[in-house]
Amino acid sequence: MRELFTLLGYELRETFDSIPWTVYFWFYFGFQYFVYGQLVSRLILEPHDYYLYYGTGLLIIMTFNVASWSGRRFVEGAHEGRLRYILSLPIRRSGLFAEQLLLGLIANLVRIGPPLVLVLWLNGMPPAVLLTSTAVLLSMSVGIMGIMISLSFIAFKSFDIYSAIVATTSAILIRFSTILYPFSYMPEAYESVARFNPLTYGADLLRNVMSIDVSQLLSPGTAIVVVAAVGLATLSLGMVLVPRTLEGVRSS
Questions:
Q1: 159-196 burial by CB neighbour count: b if 16+ within 10 A, else e?
Q2: Cα–Cα dist 194/192, whole Å
Q3: What is the CA radius of gyration of the chain?
Q4: Is the dihedral of CA 187, 199, 135, 111 positive or negative?
Q5: CA 13, 19, 21, 26 torsion-angle sign
Q6: C-alpha 232: how far from its chain's center?
Q7: What are the residue ranges of helices labelled H in the chain?
Q8: Could you tell me which of 67, 25, 33 has the C-alpha nearest to residue 53?
């Protein structure tokens, strides 16, 4: 356990060594929310408060981006030689997987936390909503990171194929979901696909805990089950695949 937290501390210092990269995430949110979000909300009359709807969707997109970055960082470490050094340390392969997840969760909390607080404050929501909203976003982050890290076995064989699969998966999951538009405004074909998308359940769950009144929000009970199931499934898959994948990576 001590080795895990020592490695985590080392990678956290490396991750946040570049402060401008973290500030970029906040600047990206501010520009999208206060400029683009304002413009779009004036064009879209329904839902009634689309500006808030868009803000929550933007938070989920940022969560997805940070979680995807965490997964890709694990893969890039192998190609840059960093993983060989880490594998030489006295830490179990399962512990390495857990350390990568913790690193991603902390990075997500730092980069998504201030924008989330800002959205809640601007809309006059109570502090309790901050806790439930954070729990939803971090739960979604676990599932996304689990998927990206589990796909690492492809990257060790071909990074180009891995990049193509990740880009395609990201585009499909984000576009075919209720992140940016509710069910009531989707074509029937889109809606059918969106109902099988885990991001749809995460997005609707976040809006439920924020008490955003949008027609056709999915049941919060069902959404909790889906988000939890995806997180547990990807964690289990990663715990199985990553140690086996790393056996093929020489430590030196």
A1: eeebeeebeeebeebbebbbbbbbbeebeeeebeebee
A2: 6
A3: 19
A4: negative
A5: positive
A6: 15
A7: 2-15, 19-31, 37-43, 50-80, 82-87, 93-122, 127-150, 152-155, 159-175, 188-194, 198-209, 220-246
A8: 33
Q: How confident is residue 116, by pLDDT bands cut at 50, 70 and 90? A: very high
Residue 82 pLDDT: 67
Reported as half-sphere exposure (CB side, CA atoms, 13 A), residue 223 has a value of 21
* Residues 32-85: tens digit of each pLDDT: 999 988 888 887 766 667 888 888 899 999 888 887 777 777 666 666 666 666
pLDDT higher than threshold 70 for residue 94: no
Average pLDDT over the chain, rounded to an integer? 80
Q: What is the pTM of this model?
A: 0.83
Using alpha carbons, list the distances in angstroms from residue 159 to 75, 77, 203.
8, 12, 30
Tokens matching residue 223? 């959404």
Residues comprising the chain, all counted: 252
